[in-house]
Structure to design on (246 residues):
């Protein structure tokens, strides 16, 4: 897929800057092709970044999990929470801007007019597609290359989430969302209490528009409500929901 000589030079400069060496330059280019471009140019949808994004999303979670597991002694729940925030669209959008992917994204004319180069969802997907392309390009060394790429460019930020987690307030995030929908607040409902008086576990649901949107439990009411709110914002895709198998 040829775009222009100027664009080809941008890809060359990008690779030099971030220590990449794609033998298959079309694979790298594909990581930045939005479906609006393939549609307007009568190309097959598989020539867009969507398949690479699917792959890169999984690789990103694995690499972030690797760094978190080997950097912190937290339990599974806290590690999952940190990973959810780190791989959220809002966060990796900032990573995409750091790499200037807004200058590389290839959009259809209409999407470009609508400001697609600045859309969080588009740039976050392009970042994941880039990781997918790197993994495929480097074959058996794909994971090692991506880990090196993330380490060199984003590791300090990833590890700083240890401190950022203390300021994360799921209840505030959820409240901002519900008020943006209909100016109403979510309702926290105590479902049950278990345990002895000095060692209780509280179970809470959070309700909005007459629907249960999240659940959580903890040894304090405040923490249980916070866990319910966190469950809700994952399910509402305010941050990416993790697959918790087993």
């Amino acid at each position: 897929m040829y775009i222009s000589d100027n664009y080809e030079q941008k890809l060359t400069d990008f690779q030099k800057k971030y220590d990449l060496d794609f033998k298959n330059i079309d694979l790298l280019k594909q990581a930045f092709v939005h479906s609006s471009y393939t549609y307007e140019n009568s190309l097959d949808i598989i020539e867009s970044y969507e398949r690479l994004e699917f792959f890169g999303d999984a690789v990103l979670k694995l690499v972030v999990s690797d760094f978190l597991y080997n950097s912190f002694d937290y339990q599974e729940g806290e590690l999952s929470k940190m990973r959810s925030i780190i791989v959220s669209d809002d966060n990796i959008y900032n990573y995409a801007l750091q790499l200037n992917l807004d200058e590389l994204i290839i959009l259809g004319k209409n999407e470009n007019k609508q400001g697609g180069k600045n859309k969080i969802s588009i740039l976050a997907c392009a970042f994941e597609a880039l990781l997918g392309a790197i993994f495929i390009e480097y074959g058996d060394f794909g994971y090692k290359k991506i880990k090196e790429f993330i380490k060199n460019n984003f590791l300090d930020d990833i590890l700083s989430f240890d401190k950022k987690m203390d300021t994360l307030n799921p209840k505030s995030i959820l409240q901002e969302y519900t008020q943006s929908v209909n100016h109403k607040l979510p309702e926290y409902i105590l479902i049950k209490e278990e345990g002895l008086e000095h060692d209780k576990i509280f179970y809470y649901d959070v309700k909005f528009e007459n629907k249960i949107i999240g659940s959580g439990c903890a040894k304090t009411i405040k923490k249980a409500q916070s866990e319910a709110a966190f469950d809700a914002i994952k399910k509402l895709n305010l941050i990416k929901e993790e697959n918790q198998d087993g």
Notes: Residues 97 and 123 are 8 Å apart (CA to CA).
